[in-house]
Design goal:
This protein has a single domain, classed as Rossmann fold. The protein contains 3 helices and 4 strands. A 4-stranded mixed beta sheet has the order 2-1-3-4, with helices on one face. Strand 1, helix 1 and strand 2 form a beta-alpha-beta unit. The termini are far apart.
Amino acid sequence: MTTERIPLAGVIGSPIAHSKSPQLHHHWLRTYGLRGHYIPMDVSTDNLKSVLETLPKMGFVGGQYYCSTQGTRVGYGRSDYRSRDAYRGRRIR
């Protein structure tokens, strides 16, 4: 018996409850008949690295990180950098 995984994606940040991304993504998934779920995940920058390492093991295939604090350091693997978008309080994709 083969079990097909439903693709998962989401938006990460803290706070994140205000994000409209899940509703927008669910609309387009339904509109185009695509399988998948897009969920909000309230994750602090202190836990970001461990969460990012865990997501692929849980079936996540993509997502966004919303950084609401200016100058937040985003470090993961080789992409350890201070993003211009982080300084402006914008989303990092």
